Amino acid sequence: MGDRRGELQAYATRLYGYAYALTRDAADAEDLVQDTFVRAMDARRVPPEASAFRAWLFRILRNRFIDLQRSRRREETPLDEMSDADDYGAADRPTGEPPVITALTVRFGLMKLTPRQREILALVDVAGFSYAEAAQILEVPPGTVMSRLARARAALLDAVGESNIIPLAHRGRRDRRA
Question: Is 106 exposed, middle or buried (0-12, 13-18, 19+ CB in 10 A)?
């Protein structure tokens, strides 16, 4: 039992990052991670391989999040109908040092994305899952992960387009103004 607790702690930060991307609330993310830990500690069957164990934990968290959303449907707007575009206007953006502004701009850009887009970015670009691992967690084909990720990255780039972030030029292109 103590051994499993140590394994869980090793994934706490990544699980919290994923939970925060889903919930957009620090307290809810912490609760979701705690609930995931409780369920993992109580589980009778635990994947023996490290990669399978990690995917299993993220799947527990995701399934618990979906269950909570279903139970809240009568009280709140369903997850897929939420729109954050109006919640994060330019007036809400704080000022500060350029790295801080860049980080906040990306964070605000992420909040403008749909829940599905935030989720795929959180799994692959934040938590570091491979396409195959993300596909296993989401229970979709790897090709679906790749297309969702491409669309999510494009949407994020659009969301931060009017900020101080300058996209890198595509490889092979040269600036002809020189």
Answer: middle
How many Å is the maximal CA-CA distance in the chain?
A: 65
**What share of the chain has pLDDT > 70, as a percent?**
72
Residue found under tokens 């669309």: 151
Residues 111 and 83: their CA atoms lie apart, in Å, by 9
Of 55, 74, 65, the residue nearest 35 (C-alpha): 65
What is the per-residue DSSP string for 131-171? Answer: HHHHHHHHTS-HHHHHHHHHHHHHHHHHHTTTSS--PPPPT
- Mapping DSSP to helix (H, G, I), strand (E, B) and coil, where does residue 77 land? coil
The pLDDT tens digits for 132-150 are: 999 999 999 999 999 999 9
- Round to whole Å and give the CA distance between 145 and 130: 10
